[in-house]
Amino acid sequence: MNSPNAIYSSKLIYDVVSDLFGCQAFPCQSLTFINGSTQDAHQDTIHLTPFPRGLVCGVWVALEDVVPGSGELFYYPGSYRLPAVLCSSHGVPKVDSEDGDYNKFGAVFTPAIKKLLADNAYLCPQTFLPRAGDVLIWQENLIHGGSPRKIMDQTRMSMVIHAFAEPALVYYDSTGISGKRDVNVG
Ligand SMILES: O=C(O)CCC(=O)C(=O)O
Fold first, then answer.
1. What is the pLDDT of residue 175?
2. Which residue from 88, 90, 83, 92 is spatially nearest to 143, judged by alpha carbons?
3. Strand order in the sheet with 56-62
4. Ligand 1 test: best mutation among 39, 138, 174, most atoms within 8 Å of CB?
5. Which range marks the domain in which residue 41 is found?
6. Domain holding 89: CATH number?
7. What angle do CA 46, 50, 54 make, to 5 degrees?
8. Residue whose CA is closest, atom 3 of ligand 1?
9. Could you tell me if residue 59 is inside a domain?
10. Residue-by-residue pLDDT tens, the chain, 186 positions
11. Which of 33, 37, 147 to mutate to test the pocket of ligand 1 (most atoms within 8 A of CB)?
């Protein structure tokens, strides 16, 4: 298995994402997990918001075979077509520093996503049970998160890279700060 650094710098990943976007893609950040994240259902749009829309994706890489109960990634196929839940549409102020207070942010967005899913109950969640090396790529608006961890000593080693298409402007909706292209890869 390649190291997270090698995966982050993998030309193959950005070639595939570039094909999907139809123009050159670059990463701007990554997260590496030993255990399942147990993140609430969310759209990445709130964290990395491209203009024009649709030009950010998540690239989730399994670093080991994922075991049921380990806190599998879940997602709602088709949910990328729903409206984006954004600060501006929900009256949430920007958080103005790294140490800022995200309480209001979480208190508003998690219920907003739950409501969106309840209003669109035809969408059914699926869990991702990949083998090591499998990759899932999602468009920024796809609703996803981390399932509860039922086996607490079971790892779920994984890495997720957020990439965007070069012509897009990308910013963090939560802070208003622009996302930066990582110039060392691609
Ligand atoms: O891997 C997970 O459990 C969730 C990752 C995620 O939601 C994200 O990176 O946006």
1. 81
2. 83
3. 25-33, 158-165, 56-62, 135-139
4. 39
5. 4-171
6. 2.60.120.620
7. 95
8. 146
9. yes
10. 678 899 999 999 999 999 999 999 999 889 999 999 999 999 998 888 899 999 999 999 999 999 999 999 999 999 999 999 988 888 887 776 666 777 777 788 999 999 999 999 999 999 999 999 999 999 999 999 999 999 999 999 999 999 999 889 888 888 888 887 766 665
11. 37
Amino acid of residue 61:
V
**Inside any domain, residue 182:** no
- The count of domains in the chain is 1
Q: Which residues line ligand 1 (CB under 6 A)?
A: 31, 33, 36-37, 39, 44, 58, 73, 144-146, 158, 160
Q: Mutation test of ligand 1: which of 144, 147, 159 has the most ligand atoms closer than 8 Å to its C-beta?
A: 144
Q: Residue 174 has what pLDDT?
A: 80
Indicate the helix (H) or strand (E) that contains 158: strand 158-165
Element (H, E) at 113: helix 103-119
CA 65/CA 72 separation, integer angstroms = 11
Q: Is residue 186 one of the residues assigned to a domain? A: no
Is there a domain that residue 80 lies in?
yes
1 CB-side CA count, 13 A: 14
- Of ligand 1's listed atoms, the one at least distance from the Cα of 160 is 9
Instruction: Please report the pLDDT score of residue 2 as a whole number.
Output: 78
